[in-house]
Each structure stands twice: as C-alpha cells, then as structure tokens.
Fold this protein.
Amino acid sequence: MQDSAQSALATSTILPLDGAYDLGRAMADTAENIEQVLNSLLPELRPGEPPVVAAMRYATLAGGKRLRPFLVVSSARVFGVTGPGVLRTAAALEMVHCYSLIHDDLPAMDNDDLRRGRPTTHKAFDEATAILAGNALLTLALEILGNAVTHPESDVRISLVTGLARAAGVAGMIGGQAMDMAVHETPVMDLDGLIRLQQLKTGALFAFAGEAGAILGKAADDARRALISYAYDMGVAFQIADDLLDVRGEAKDIGKTPGKDAASGKVTFVSLLGEGEAEVRAHEFSDRAIRHLDAFGPEADALRAVARFAVERRK
Amino acid sequence: MQDSAQSALATSTILPLDGAYDLGRAMADTAENIEQVLNSLLPELRPGEPPVVAAMRYATLAGGKRLRPFLVVSSARVFGVTGPGVLRTAAALEMVHCYSLIHDDLPAMDNDDLRRGRPTTHKAFDEATAILAGNALLTLALEILGNAVTHPESDVRISLVTGLARAAGVAGMIGGQAMDMAVHETPVMDLDGLIRLQQLKTGALFAFAGEAGAILGKAADDARRALISYAYDMGVAFQIADDLLDVRGEAKDIGKTPGKDAASGKVTFVSLLGEGEAEVRAHEFSDRAIRHLDAFGPEADALRAVARFAVERRK
C-alpha cells in the first residue's frame, strides 16, 4: 500500500515545481505517513469476525494522493505545528473522505463497480457491509478527534470534532450529496449551481482541512478565515481540473475510463463551459486561492504549490 | 407528534407501579420534552431543498417510548443534574438510535417496509435519501454533544462525544449490526452468542445512556461503572421482553405483526429458551440491573422502575 501511495506522486509530471519546494516529495512523504497512521488507527483484522473491519481497511488503505491530509499537514505547518496529533487529524479527515466514497458508490447512489481500478467496497464485500463500513469510518474519525492523544487541550479537540461534524453534515458534504442525487433526476444546473454543489459536496471537507490546521495552530481569526477561503477556492480549481481530466486524461493515469462523466450526461464544468473556458476558470480559482495566502510568508509555500498542482496535474 | 409520544405511555397498562414514583407520567413528560428538543435541533424544512432534511425529521419525530433519552435523564438525575444540556444529550442519543433504525430497515439490511405501522424511511422517500438521512443524524448527534450549549466544560463534552462514538462504533452498535447480518447467513447461535450480539447491537447505546448521566453528573468511577452495568443488564431484560412480546403481543400494541421474528427464522431468546425460561431470564436480568443500583438511594428510583417496566410492559 505504501509503495502505491508513494509512486502515485513520484511519477507526477509536474515535479519539481520550482527550486525552493519539492511538492511531489512532500506529498509522497505525507501519503506514506498517513498510510501508517491509518493502519494503526483502524481496527485490526481478527479471524472469525464479521467482514466490516476488513471492508473499512479495504476502502481506506488503498493509497491515493491523500490530498486532504496533505492540506491539514501543510495548513498546520503555516503555524509551525507538526507531529502525531496533526497526522491523526489528517487521517481522521481521510477516513471521512473514504466513507463518503463508499456510500457514493452504492447501488442506491452512483452505482459504481470500480474505483481507482479496484472493485468498489460493496462489490468486494456486499452492500450491507459497505454501508456499515462507511458508518464505522465516520464514527471512528470523530472518536479519534476527541481522543486526548490527538491534542492535550480539550478545547482544541472539541473545535476539531464540531468542525469536522459540520463539514461532513447536512449543511456540508451530506447536503452536497443530497443535492447531487436530486440533480440526477433533473439535470438542469447552471454554473453558480454547480459551484455551490461542489463547495458543499467536496469543498466543505477541503475547507475543514484548512480550518483544522488553523485550529491546531491556534491561529487568529483572520488567518483561520484565510485558510478556509484558500481551501474552498482550491477545491473548485481541483474539481474543474478533474472534469478536464475526465475528457482529456488517459485511463492509465486517471484510473477510470475517460469520457465517463460526459457519456453519463452528468453536468460538469466542462459540459457547462467548454474545455477552453473551464481551463481559464480553473486557473482563476487557483490564483484566487493563492491570493488568500498573501498575509503568509514562505511557511505557506506548500499550500501555494498545492493550488498550482490542483490545475496542472495530469492525473 | 407530541400527542402520540404522550399517549404511548399514558395508555401503558402497568401504571402506576407504586405509590412513590409514577413512571408512566415521568416517561410521558420526558418523551414530550425530547420531542420538542429534537424538533428544535433538527434542521428546518425549507422549500426547494433536497428531501434529506424531511427524511431526518420523518425518521426522528415519530413519537415512541423514548426509552434511551429517559435513561439519560434518569441517570443524570441520580447526581442531581437536570436541564437543557441533559435533554440535548438525550436527544443526540435518540438521533443515533433513529439513524440505526433507518439503516437497519434498508433493503440491503433487514429489508423492512414498515416500522411502527408507518412506511420505513426508504419507502417514504428513497434508498439514497434514507442512507444520507441516517448519516446526517449520526453526524448531527456528535456535533450537538460537542456544542458549548450542551455543557460549559469542554472536558465533559469530549467525554460525551467519545463515549457515544465508541458506543455507536465498530466495537459497539455497528459491530452488533455486522454480527447480526452475518447471523442471517449462518443462523447458528447459542445463548451466550445472542447475549453478546444484543449487548453490542442495542446494549452499547443503553450503556452510553447510563454513562452519559454519570458524565454529566461528574460521578465517581464506581458510580459510573454501576450505571453502565445497570444499563447493560436492563438492555438484555428489555430485549428478552421484546422477543416475548413478538410471540405474545397484539399487533395494535406492538406496532407490527406478532410472530414476525419466529416466521423469519430469526434466532431470539424465545426460540433458544422457550417462553417460560425466557421470562425467568428476563426477570433475572432486570433484578440484576436493579442490584447494580444498591449504592444509590431514592434518587435512582426512576432507573429501578424502568428495569421493572422493561419486563412487565405489554408493548
């Protein structure tokens, strides 16, 4: 698992971005650390037990870019904060992301059989196990944030718990998923609607990644707001780039069949704007994300590099 | 809604239990309070929004005994603690209970069309909405426990959050649901296995109800352990009585077709022990639950009355 997480970044075509900061190396290092922390936080497989634990591990220890954890780590580093508590927070956020993917893939939702070239969790196990594994990951993530090992001060832990719960709840990610399901039935959506959907469905967790760094760093309100705004704009840039990769990317890089979104009639930034205009907008959001960091110095270079990576990546 | 919650208890056949404590009145009062608190904590219905909020409200504001909230309220009262924070904690626990029912009823799980005489949530809405509504209730419950309105001290809130997350997680309720699904496939289970399954699937939330009262009451360790042990044993007594009602009860009282469990070939305390022995065991667990309260005085009478109610109720 660690090898695949590492190689995902090692083969990135945009590295190094500049002489000062090697994003590919930093993301690969974080991905490796997160894989280890996830492995230690997930319940152990024991013989004779129901398959829910195996399904939790299957869905979570599957490598990938670990972009959200990297945002947590990089946001905390803006305030000079590093260490196991940061990685636990990052891993908890990744668990919530993985739970959302398990449930999104269910037959009653997007009904996907494959994710990143592997059977989805309900295909590798069964639907009941997939539903329970998703529930268990959400529950475990919030328990981890509340645990004293994550931070010695209960005020900090409470801010993390309530921040993640809000981001993952009906005013955040779940609201976005519900809106997405409704759109499936009446696929009429303009650009503002799509941005709003994206900001709920995936933006809220990105925003929490920035917020978590600020909470762990005990940042002042304006710094906290700057990181949240950065993460929202970076998230939109990332999503537009995803839609562009869906029409331009190669299957071996993006881990799914190119053109799948277009073929399914899904409303995307590309279907609304066309490729050229979508690319312009992606760069606008990326630039805007970077401008939210103007008050910070080189300690925010990782976040600036991620915002560029979001739109320049090939996978 | 409040009327049905109230009438559920007002028509109970076992009231009053004795001259000193009117359990029926106390449970009806708590049920009414909880209905109001749930109503205020759940997101509001707004026109044009996806149906997930309506589904959350449908599944939660359906009346019922509100036994778990009553246990929270009664356990807190052992330590002289009352007020809005206790009711918020009780309501959060009820949300987790309702989320578990929504997901248990799904086609991939128990595939039930009716609950308490009404269409289950996935029948009244659709599967995707039911899955999301369950997820949203779990998320909201943990957010509520973390909110400063629930208790001024963050240490207390953290204990509530982590306590509920553990009870609802893979080492508690979800573990029990997973075991229950596995049993569906290989229905070979002895009494110890069934008690273990029940203690995970429903006992863990009962235990948290007792624990929550102890946390809110800042109880000493031995008092906290006593309430948890009480709640576990009371939960088993309650479940055995449920199995007895399934074979003895009348449809109008129990809100489902009598004999349903037996007809489905489900392993129950009655199928393992027979009616007579099951009744003996129910009373044993109820008595044992009450003995865990020996260190407390009349301030624990509500809990003693509930343990009797668990096995003497007719619905």
